[in-house]
Amino acid sequence: MIPTITRGDAMIDVDTLPACPVETTLTLISDKWKILIVRDLLTGTKRFSELRRSIGHISQKVLTSNLRQMEADGLVHRKVYPEVPPR
Questions:
Q1: Where are the chain's structural domains?
Q2: Is this prediction's pTM over 0.85?
Q3: Within the chain, which residues score under 50 in pLDDT?
Q4: How far apart are the C-alpha atoms of 37 and 34, rounded to whole Å?
């Protein structure tokens, strides 16, 4: 079985990713929203609402979709806290 990375609806074969780490990174975060998400997460863990507010004019649907893609690509880790209200 060939290792793959999910990118939206498409699957990327790990073998077809560029050998250059910079080019691989650009392939995985080439979307403008993903770059802003990474920028805002560099300072530490954020709640979904904090992330949405700090990015600006991004819809909930687009942010959710991008975070799911980034999680599937191994770029971010989602942690759910068993608290009310959610952390």
A1: 4-72
A2: no
A3: none
A4: 5
